[in-house]
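Hey L., structure's done. Input below.
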Amino acid sequence: MNEGLFSAFSGLKEWNDLLERVRAPGITSVYNVAEGERAFTAAALANRTGRCVLLVSPTELIAQKQAQDAAQLLGGQCAMLPAREIQFSRAAASRESTWQRLSVLEDVLCGKIKVLCVSAEGLMSRYAPVRLFRNAAVTLSEGGRIAPQTLLESLLFSGYERVDMVEGKGQCSLRGSILDVYPPSADSALRVEFFDDELDSLREFDPISQRSIRRVKSAKVGPASEALIDPDAREQSAVRLRDAITSEQKFSPSIGKMALEKEGDLADLPPIEEIISGDGEDDEEQNAALELHAQALLSGEKGVPATARDNAYKRHLDDVDVVRRGYPTRTGSMWMNVLHPQTASLFDYLENPILLLDAPDQLQVRAKARQEGFVQDFGEAQRRGDAFDAQLKLLYTYDELVQRLTGRAVVTLGDLQRGMGQVKPEVLLDFGSSPVMPYQSQLKPLCGDIAQWKEKGFCIALLAGGEARGRRLERALSELDTPCVYTDSLPSNLI
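Output:
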């Protein structure tokens, strides 16, 4: 912990005013904060208040860098939540971003994150109610009791895919008295051995070699999907999903009929080749079968669909039955606002957070650009039958996010001259910091600045990206007659 660094703020009146302001809901604008100081401000607030700080940045690249900087200052416990990928088609795609998101959300709810960084785009996602995510996590301990089939069902309801052999994250399998599962937040898969209904042993194993790594006493298994289904409202969720699909008017009439009667006489028809060949049927029976088959072809129940759009609708209708049984679907995140009438925002997943908005004017521009891009993608997907009117509200708008700031402790970091992006601060605080020139690995200008700062009585701390870089910088500055000392941390008030 770099307590010595954070103490640099202790003598600043504006800092103490800020600490007092974030105790209660309200919007405070902190200006004249250098870009490189914003992650430091977030880390200092988290350290001083003991609360989680959500730092919202214009882009994901900035958010990633700020998360790394904050982690260096706090010794970890910082993360960047990537934006959810929006993919209307059902084409196969990497789920690495999904696993990272689930891992971060799990850590957030467990209180392991002090500073959470997210981009403006990432903040626009809708989430399932927090209680569903909390309830989906399962803690397993040696000696505990749970039936293997019950545990398997719990994993399936949490979004895991049942396979014969677990080879990747989000998969589970049950073979006799052995259950394997690979949680998204884990570095290795978990093998649970049962003795009747008792958890006899828990072992981490390598999914490639299938060999055990080590035995553990307990393990937490988080959900493998963000689009969890409320077990008490799965029928209502299925009905809303069906209505959202069948309300479309730009498809053949067969789709509406399929949604309401997916089973019946037509589904039991034999292939048309068997009917034509006769196979001992009399003419009357054969004619009746041909008539039914003709009806099936006309209605789309049997045979080839009229258009590619019909194919897309039918695939979505298959998801209705999955939701009705309470299982998440692969495309569930694309229906978040339909599956849950009251969706949550990222704010709701944090307990009493401090919200830091980095350059709010840029956040507004980025959010609106993302919304425009989403609308364009939606239009193209809708033309090919992969998107539906109800999905147009899949993202929170910037205006909706601003409204959700009400009743929270909010701090804006930026330049007053560039605007506040519809955010209306109640108090202005001037931190008076100044940016330094980018030295671009040129150490002589840095040495010149250090000499000037020393003459003014400043205490100087240079933050390197790691120990190796810090050691090299120490040697290089010493060779230029600028002596300095390297340290891993500043645990006490040295500044």
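The domain at 138-221 is CATH 3.30.2060.10 (Penicillin-binding protein 1b fold). The chain has four domains: 3-126+345-430, 138-221, 234-338, 441-495.

-- N.
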